[in-house]
Design brief:
By secondary structure, the chain is mainly alpha-helical. It has 15 helices and five strands.
């Protein structure tokens, strides 16, 4: 879940293009997709799988793209079909609909479909990025799980059903499937290990690379048939503080919508300006202001 986002206009142009699907990232969030910089590690401080894939010329379909393109309800339907038997299970036509314009896919809930994706796109390669499970859980606790516990989300979801409601419903279902929304270490680590074993079981070994950030460029480029870039280092993004601040912007937009929906005109305008100031103060990507219409 990167902090640097494509603008709606950029996405609109991107999805007009046809790109053959090439790579699926099957690891869980905070497993090297956006590496949390260790303060004492000068080599790995900027290494992140998403940045590496972009450097190699891929166009990733990330969680924020699903939000901006309005795809979360579609993925909620996909999860309901697979895990609750409600609706038609997804196959190549449904995946093509949401993947248009992209050639690389990562993050939940896409990672929950390793069999469906590997069979729907038989020429694709799959990467199972991993880190030690206890370390992964600590990272999730300080980022995603921390954000999910903000007490205002249920109320905001009710007041803003079109945006926040759909996001919140999707998040709850995703982690209900993954760990029964139990964010404790035992439950999450068990779910984490179960997910990785499932991917190993259903994906052909010749098409699967198990990779960790510490391994760097060499095994990644060899697997993808790419040359190792000559220059070293990638843009550093998505450390813990930046991650939480980025979701603070999401919260600001949710509050803006909630107040607007209540019909409090003056307060809505004032809150909108406050949200814009908050984004500026945190030095996050200014393109999100296009979503606010300011």
């Amino acid at each position: 879940m990167a902090i640097t986002w494509r603008s709606p206009q950029e996405l609109k142009e991107l999805i007009k293009q046809d790109r053959p699907m090439q790579v699926f990232i099957m690891g869980m969030p905070r497993s090297g997709t956006m590496y949390e910089r260790p303060k004492t590690d000068p080599i790995l401080k900027e290494l992140a799988l998403v940045a590496a894939l972009k450097k190699l010329g891929y166009t990733p379909y990330d969680f924020i793209d699903r939000i901006l393109l309005g795809h979360l309800p579609l993925w909620t339907d996909a999860l309901c079909a697979k895990y609750e038997g409600k609706g038609r299970p997804w196959g190549r036509p449904e995946f093509d609909r949401v993947f248009k314009g992209f050639d690389c896919v990562l993050d939940v809930p896409c990672t929950f479909f390793p069999l469906e994706l590997s069979t729907s796109y038989p020429r694709s390669l799959l990467i199972l990025n991993a880190r030690p499970a206890p370390s992964w859980h600590r990272s999730m606790t300080s980022t995603l799980f921390h954000v999910f516990r903000w007490p205002s989300w249920p109320l905001l979801a009710r007041l803003d059903p079109t945006f926040t409601g759909k996001w919140y419903e999707h998040i709850l279902l995703t982690f209900q499937i993954f760990c029964n929304n139990d964010y404790s270490a035992p439950a999450c680590i068990e779910a984490y290990n179960r997910h990785y074993e499932h991917v190993r079981e259903v994906v052909p070994k010749e098409r699967l690379l198990e990779w960790s950030v510490e391994e760097g460029w060499e095994p990644l480029c060899k697997f993808l048939g790419k040359k190792v870039p000559e220059e070293e280092g990638f843009p550093y993004v998505n450390d813990t503080e930046a991650f939480v601040k980025g979701h603070g912007m999401l919260w600001s937009y949710a509050v803006f919508n909630a107040v607007k929906n209540l019909g409090l005109g003056a307060l809505s305008i004032g809150l909108g300006w406050w949200a814009a100031w908050y984004m500026y103060k945190t030095r996050a990507d200014r393109k999100l202001t296009e979503l606010l219409g300011l």
